[in-house]
Design goal:
The protein has 2 domains: 3-46 and 102-386, no CATH class; 394-515, Rossmann fold (3-Layer(aba) Sandwich), CATH 3.40.50. The chain is 61% helix and 5% strand. The chain has 533 residues and is mainly α. It has helices at residues 3-6, 14-20, 25-45, 52-63, 81-94, 98-101, 103-123, 128-138, 140-145, 152-169, 176-192, 196-213, 218-226, 228-246, 249-253, 265-280, 288-305, 307-325, 340-358, 363-386, 394-404, 418-425, 446-454, 481-490, 511-515; strands at 410-413, 435-437, 462-467, 492-499, 502-508. It has a 5-stranded mixed beta sheet, sandwiched between helices. It contains 25 helices and 5 strands.
């Protein structure tokens, strides 16, 4: 923000700037950026199958025109209009394939590396720059979402872009022209990224504090008027685009919200638990206690040396918490990816301050601390170059069914698997008459499934397809044990194929197979979970 305030202490003085631009820091930072680019490209090049969330959004992008994307999206989906337009452009240019659909997130993921470097050089101690950039480059969630058909990667890029512009404009005294320029930029940014509103509000608070500190209280009105532009823009966006999706059952019931106001010890524990969880997901770190300690030291340092930047980086998370408390923005994992840059900036500043306080005699301790922080993300970043991250590999399963299917075979698709199956059905030659979609059972009503399966009795060959994954890492989905048990009572399993997070089972449910099936024992109680280990 203000240059005289930024350059207090050891935060970013002229000697620090020269050090940050000299060897080894400058060359090391560019090496880190190259590594980050390679890790993101490697994940993108794996060309994994679209998973559930992507297959909910992809049909709208692939089937609609630019004008059609202005209407409410299918499947209660919501995404920024410019994101959708960019996706449509790449689909029209390169075809409706996974590479085209994920190209824009990749571009945003790579841009984020350069933007993080730009910001870190201007707000961190020189020793903290490679720490922040290194953690950003190898962060598992940041790498993964750089090749997912969702807007989370662009959220990070927009957040960093707003930070960069705010730092540039805040170098010297704020003028009405600068304030309204940033306000106009913010009016555009809320259309580019939904959580941008939290970043803009944080910048506004930081600049209001700067005006008070400089005893220019008249500028507070200018700040308010300038930031009224994003508020008006967001209002228009809400009533034209976001109102419908914000009231979707999936959003209102599919997430846990901040308890507001907290009324019990359990509610208070929610805050402590989620504070540490944020370092793991979306932060991509382990040793969360150590990471949290460095983070808190960094927050304390920013508040002491540069309160405007402290507000800019810290308040977006608090505003997101408040929005979660009123059920407007879930405080949940990938939806918080835009907070990762600020988290790493605080952590890295804290690590640099700890190094200063320890001095030369504590270099071994500091080295061990940094090694522990980098250990987990580094190992898995390298491992996933060989074994790219996946969630549920639909394509190998459907390819197996296509190759082994015989005339007259019926395909039964689990209800939760229908978006992925329908998206890929035409590619693998399945028409609407070749498959049936399973029932959407009521919670706790196992009989809904068993009654649905019973409709398949008498069929010689039925493929049961399950395309879902129950964990972030994309390990094989839990075997649908309760389902297979019931099907085993109805007939005989004659084939199966298990992929990563997806599977298919071929059953003979003819009368002859039913007579030779497992003798019927006690009925499965209703409370038995749908999927069991």
């Amino acid at each position: 923000m203000s240059e005289t305030h930024v350059n207090t202490g050891k935060a970013a003085g002229s000697s620090g700037d020269r050090a940050a631009r000299s060897f080894p820091f400058n060359r090391l930072n560019w090496i880190i950026i190259c590594i980050g680019v390679l890790l993101r490209v490697a994940q993108y090049a794996s060309n994994r199958s679209l998973w559930l969330d992507e297959t909910l959004l992809a049909p709208s992008i692939v089937s609609r025109s630019y004008a059609g994307l202005l209407r409410p999206l299918d499947n209660y989906q919501a995404a920024p209009i410019p994101f959708l337009m960019a996706e449509r452009f790449f689909v029209e240019t390169f075809g409706s394939n996974e590479y085209a659909l994920r190209l824009f997130p990749l571009v945003c993921g790579i841009a984020g590396l350069f933007l993080l470097y730009f910001v870190a050089k201007r707000v961190l101690r020189p020793e903290g720059v490679p720490v922040a950039l290194g953690l950003f480059a190898i962060s598992g969630p940041l790498i993964y979402f750089s090749s997912e058909l969702k807007q989370y990667s662009s959220d990070v890029a927009v957040t960093l872009g707003l930070y960069a512009v705010a730092i540039i404009l805040g170098k010297s005294s704020l003028s009405a022209r600068k304030l309204f320029l940033f306000g106009a930029l913010g009016a555009i940014a809320v259309w580019l990224s939904h959580p941008a509103v939290f970043v803009l509000a944080a910048v506004a608070v930081g600049w209001a504090h700067q005006c008070r500190r400089e005893k220019q209280n008249w500028k507070l009105l200018v700040v308010a008027l300038a930031f009224l532009l994003p508020v008006l823009s967001l209002t228009v966006e809400y009533f034209t685009v976001l109102r419908g999706p914000s009231q979707s059952p999936a959003l209102l019931t599919g997430y846990r919200w901040m308890p507001f106001p907290p009324k019990s010890i359990k509610d208070i524990y929610w805050f402590v638990w989620n504070f540490f969880c944020c370092f793991t997901n979306p932060g991509g770190l382990r040793f969360t206690g150590l990471a949290a300690f460095c983070f808190l030291v960094g927050v304390w340092t920013f508040l002491r040396e540069n309160r405007e930047n402290a507000y800019m980086f810290l308040l977006p998370g608090l505003f997101a918490l408040l929005a979660s408390g009123v059920h407007k923005y879930p405080f949940f994992e990938r939806l918080l990816l835009f907070l990762v840059p600020a988290m790493l900036l605080f952590l890295s500043q804290g690590a640099a301050v700890i190094k200063e306080r320890l001095g030369g005699r504590g270099s071994a301790i500091w080295g061990l601390m940094i090694t522990l922080i980098f250990l987990h993300p580094t190992f898995f970043a390298l491992w996933h170059v060989v074994q790219p991250r996946t969630r549920n590999e639909v394509k190998p399963v459907l390819s197996y069914v296509q190759q082994h299917r015989q005339p007259g075979d019926l395909i039964y698709v689990d209800y939760a698997s229908r978006p992925g199956f329908k998206y890929y059905a035409e590619r693998f030659g399945f028409s609407d008459k070749d498959y049936v979609i399973g029932v959407m059972a009521r919670p706790g009503h196992w009989e809904d499934y068993t009654n649905d399966f019973d409709k398949m009795r008498g069929s010689k060959r039925v493929w049961f397809v399950f395309l879902w994954a129950n964990n972030w890492g994309g390990q094989p989905a839990d075997e649908p044990g309760a389902w297979l048990y019931h099907l085993g009572l109805m007939g005989k399993r004659i084939d199966e194929f298990k992929g990563k997070g997806a599977s298919t089972y071929l059953f003979d449910l003819s009368e002859e197979a039913a007579r030779k099936a497992i003798p019927r024992g006690p009925e499965i109680p209703v409370e038995v979970p749908l999927y069991v280990d």
